[in-house]
Structures are given as structure tokens and as C-alpha cells.
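Request: How about a record?
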Amino acid sequence: MKRFLLLAAAAAGLAALKKMQDTQAERDLWAEATDDVTPPGQ
């Protein structure tokens, strides 16, 4: 039973980590997509 709980906790932790990474990647993408565009040389 302890092994199952440990495995479930590890899986939940990995899922939370993946979700945070996905969220950060989406924020980075939006930040890049909404950057101000300036003409070259200015």
C-alpha cells in the first residue's frame, strides 16, 4: 500500500511539473508573439 501511495504521489508531482512547464512555455510564446515590432536599425 505504501508503494502505491508513493507511486501515486510521484506521478502527481510529475504531472504538476509538466503542467507548470507547459504553462511557462505558453507564457513565453505569448510574450514573444506580442513583442513590439521595431524596424531594423532603430
Summary: The radius of gyration is 19 Å. The mean pLDDT is 92.
